Amino acid sequence: MKVGPGPRLPWWDRFPLGRYLAGRLLSAIVVVVAASVVIFGAMQLLPGDAVDVLLAKGAGSGGGTAAQKAALRAELGLDRPLPERYLDWIGGVLRGDLGRSVFSGRPVTEIVAGRLRNTLTLAAVATAVLVPVAVGLGAWAGARAGRARDRAVTVAAVVVGALPEFVTATLLIAVFAYAWPVLPAVSMLDPDASPLSAPEVLVLPVLTLVAVMAPQTIRMVRAQVAEAMASDYVRMARLHGVSERRIVTHHALRNALAPAAPLLAGSITWLVGGIVVVETVFNYPGISADLVHAIGHRDLPYVQSVTLLFAATTVVGYLLADLTVLALVPKLRTQPRQGR
């Protein structure tokens, strides 16, 4: 008796990886939308508003009559209902229009573009240094767990990781700009110049960011490599004559990177907040100076748009970490997945 083909499975059962990726992308979109609501709401809770700041600028503290305040609030659209203002703002964001700065009147996109290149350059260089340093030191220590080098790396990671970024920055300035003056204490640049044209101004900010971000990842990679090196499959590889270097790089480290990837992504996305402090300490011409100025002047369109940009960057970072885990662990690309 000829048996016909069974019922055709829906696409989400036939393509579990596609279902997982679609679910993660949808989750990322939902998180960004939720973040936009929280950011917009938080901005409305700040004491004072741009109207008070603008009027005080021209007439001194407390300047401006009630009528002037009402007229300026209407001109800026601050008298409209909150849901209407939110929809207007988020609709503009979706069209690539981040709104206009209340304080300067310039488009937020134009203001951000002038500084964003420098911030992205600093973040990219810090990430390029962070990944090999954190992974390399973690694997180097974990491959000889319990030995002197393992203890040295672990202690150093704990001590450095316990220091806030501004303390680390201050110590680096004291050592490399004053005690041993080989690097500039501040990162001064021509407004139109690229930071890469003067790489010396990047060294101390990059060292600060790496020193703050690397310790947790080093310890995670170290723990995972140490666990892998004590496993049965590593013992079997040794019995088959596989070199120790190949065991570490092709077996232990590969398995260690999967659980360490989300933590590494978290360290990289920490740049979103940590880079503001570092840019301020070193007077680096990035986006932080304008952001601090905008907060002080209650420039809500600028602050909320830049904050949403930071939030979206964080979400994308974690999404890329998930994809990295899929690339490192082949079985995760084929096994059925339950909803997360």
UniProtKB/TrEMBL annotation:
Coiled-coil stretches noted in the UniProt entry, renumbered to this chain: none
InterPro entries the UniProt entry points to: BPD_transp_1_N, MetI-like, MetI-like_sf
Protein name (record): Peptide/nickel transport system permease protein
Keyword annotations of the record: Cell membrane, Membrane, Transmembrane, Transmembrane helix, Transport
Domain annotation ABC transmembrane type-1: ranges: 116-321
Family: Belongs to the binding-protein-dependent transport system permease family.
Residues annotated as transmembrane: 21-46, 122-143, 155-181, 201-221, 256-282, 302-329
Subcellular location: Cell membrane
GO biological process: transmembrane transport
Membrane topology note: Multi-pass membrane protein
One Pfam family per UniProt: BPD_transp_1
Keyword Endoplasmic reticulum: no
Gene Ontology terms: cellular component: plasma membrane
